[in-house]
UniProtKB/TrEMBL annotation:
This is Porin. InterPro entries: Gram-neg_bact_OMP (IPR050298), Gram_neg_porin_domain (IPR033900), Porin_dom_sf (IPR023614). One of its GO terms (cellular component) is cell outer membrane. The keyword ATP-binding does not apply. It is a multi-pass membrane protein. It comes from Marinobacter vinifirmus. Residues 14-344 form the Porin domain. It is found in: Cell outer membrane. Keywords: Membrane, Signal. Residues 1-27 form the signal peptide. It comes from the Bacteria.
Length: 367
């Protein structure tokens, strides 16, 4: 979009952040721009050959799957109304992993469907979008466009979810974002609360609150980005009350072609994968961290990543190590090779519940 008053988010932010770390650039295709009204389309397409050695199950499988980011097409709208700019985005996220289970009925997620109102005061977003808690933790992951750790039984990869950060669930929300104040930005919103105490008399008397503070600066060629985000909500029924809350944080420093990122989170009463309408037995703790380094030389970006999560709530400990190479064929075509080592142990008895090494080689096309 040419109108710079409209704030990009979701896929556009995620892909842009990741590609800017390399030598590429992400830009939507402008379909219409006349009389203050614009409409554009962006897309993200990827597929990986995946070879996984599951040591616990003692099996090795080869698959063709999408990476951590699903294949996506998004539509962006903007209209200049004088002192205000009205905008919006709808995006559709699809999987290719169900090609044999649902050959002609591929699953489609609508993770973004929102409108924005921009002015000198900042921006107000209404609709469905990714949350603010852990938002920068995941969108600034150096392996966002890679494959990552094993995930759900459906074969979806999890990146570093549950091995360094939780997922910022797409949720119904009303969110305010401040203007850029010399590098400082503030976002705060109310979101649909999760029912974590289903049963007789279950209620969520207040919305879920989430916020994020980010700061960016350039100190004579050293680029710094820091962030702090959080979430709080309560749910109760006739016998139980669960307060869910978490704090995420991180710092990214880049100079020349070198980039170093450290991030982490700590939470209570909140499963460190995603918050949902699901019974939580208690307000147990969880925490995790992610350390990453990357080096860009010409069209190539080399990434080393290590993350851990320790969850009393989920009853597991994980560690995830990844090595990856990203090669820009051009600004819209990227090749990826990644080797991932993921291990999970049950906290109750120390048993290894997953020990998998994964080789993923793929290609990404964006527009």
């Amino acid at each position: 979009m040419n109108n710079n008053k409209v704030t990009k988010s979701g896929l556009a932010l995620a892909v842009a952040a990741s590609m800017l770390a390399g030598s590429g650039a992400q830009a939507a295709v402008e379909v219409y721009n006349q009389d203050g009204t614009s409409f554009s389309v962006d897309g993200y397409f990827n597929a990986f050959y995946v070879n996984r050695d599951d040591k616990v199950a003692d099996v090795r499988n080869s698959d063709i799957k999408m990476g951590f980011l699903p294949n996506t097409i998004g539509f962006n709208f903007s209209k200049d109304m004088g002192d205000l700019t009205l905008g919006g985005r709808s995006s559709f996220w699809t999987t290719i992993n169900d090609s044999l289970q649902s050959p002609t009925d591929t699953s489609i997620d609508v993770r973004q469907l929102y409108a924005t109102v921009d002015g000198d005061f900042g921006q107000v977003l209404i609709g469905k979008d990714f949350g603010l808690y852990a938002r920068s933790n995941i969108f600034l992951d150096e392996l966002l466009m890679g494959f990552g750790s094993p995930g759900a039984a459906t074969g979806v990869s999890f990146g570093n979810i549950r091995a360094g950060y939780p997922y910022p669930n797409p949720s119904a929300q009303i969110t305010y974002r401040s203007p850029d104040m010399a590098g400082l930005k503030v976002a705060a919103g109310i979101l649909e609360p999760a029912n974590t105490t289903p049963g007789a008399g279950s209620e969520q008397s207040a919305p879920r609150f989430e916020a994020e503070l980010t700061y960016s600066a350039d100190l004579k060629g050293l680029s710094l980005t820091g962030w702090l985000n959080g979430r709080h909500q309560s749910s109760e029924n006739a016998t139980t009350k669960v307060d869910s809350q978490g704090i995420g944080y991180g710092l990214k420093a880049s100079v020349a072609g070198l980039s170093v990122t450290a991030s982490g989170f700590t939470s209570e009463g909140d499963v460190p994968v995603l918050i949902s309408d699901e019974l939580l037995a208690s307000e147990e703790d969880a925490d995790g961290y992610l350390l990453q380094g990357s080096y860009t030389q010409g069209a190539n970006r080399f990434v080393l990543s290590y993350g851990e999560t320790d969850s009393d709530q989920g009853g597991f400990e994980t560690e995830n190590t990844s090595f990856a190479v990203f090669h820009d064929v051009n600004s819209n075509f990227k090749l990826v090779a990644e080797y991932n080592m993921f291990e999970e142990q049950a906290k109750s008895n120390g048993a290894t519940t997953m020990d998998a090494n994964t080789l993923a080689v793929g290609a990404i096309v964006t527009f």
